[in-house]
Amino acid sequence: MSNPISRNFQNIFLTVVICGNVCLPALAFSQNNIGIEFKDKDQNVKVLTLSDITTEVTAVSLKTFEIHEKKDQIYKAYPARALFDKTFGKGWLKAEEIVFISMDGYQASIPVTKFLSHDAYFAFAHHDNSPFTMTNILQNNEVVQLGPLYLIWDNMKSKVLLEDGASDMPYQVKSIELTTFATRFPNLSPPAKASAEVRRGFLHFRKYCMACHMINGEGGGKAPELNYPTSVVEYIKPEYLTRWIENPSSIRHNSLMPGLAQEILNRAKVTKEIIAYLKAMSTTKRSPQKQDIR
Ligand code: HEC
């Protein structure tokens, strides 16, 4: 879970006065100075600030349907493919998965194929230069910081993207990593002899849950671990687990968890399959590696 105090600090332009022989004028620290890491299988490729990116990639204005706010928004943004070309070279096209790590612990893991079939952009400002924040309806109307980079999609004409909900739209992105899912998240995979239902549940969990939650120490650090050492299926009654997934605020007032998006086709079946996966993982506990917990 992100800490509201540190989040507020990101909004403030810290003013530091450095005094040596001469007192320098105040040094402004802002989103523009945050180093965004680009990695290829854990190796650092580059660290770029927004000011660096501005000199490398041409920004555009993009109108999108803002899923977190349920209204249209216009952002200033860099085309994702152009940014990947500049940072990784054409090699990124051969990668399998891209993991985006956010300052609040969110960890979106998105297949490269999605970037080839849809146009993604990294927003860095609102079109009208208003503060780069938003009121996130999906997160109990919290006001959240969006910078340094916010991954958005040209979704106005795409039913598929609108149905995907907000899980592939990480904000506060500070690290972008090329990888393969199996090597990056070995502890999340279901047991080898798992049923087809459990495997489908695993794919849904990958898509809708792991950006916030960990299983066996792997996944996002924005919400509680769900499997290790005690699984949620061991202490939450089945009907309540369904409600946690579909309507979290019916369990806990002011819950920061968004319910499974209403737009998802066969939503009840998806929930059932996610629970089948969680049950299978409750008998597949793997001790988290230290480096998994970031
Ligand atoms: C955007 C982040 C986010 C996403 C996505 C998310 N959750 Fe959560 N979840 C939370 C947070 C935060 C909590 C902590 C309780 C709260 O704030 O209400 C939580 C709590 C829970 C709990 C209760 C855990 C406990 O021990 O009390 C369960 C179970 C759960 N989530 C399951 C899921 C499943 C399954 C999915 C995918 C369908 C999912 N969550 C998607 C943020 C998220």
TrEMBL record:
InterPro entries: Cyt_c-like_dom, Cyt_c-like_dom_sf
Keyword Isomerase part of the UniProt annotation: no
Domain spans labelled Cytochrome c: 196-282
Protein's organism: Candidatus Nitrotoga arctica
PROSITE patterns found in the cross-reference section: CYTC (PS51007)
Transmembrane segments: 12-29
Keyword Transmembrane: yes
SUPFAM superfamilies in UniProt: Cytochrome c (SSF46626)
Name of protein: Cytochrome c domain-containing protein
The entry's keywords: Heme, Iron, Membrane, Metal-binding, Transmembrane, Transmembrane helix
Gene3D superfamilies tied to this protein: Cytochrome c-like domain
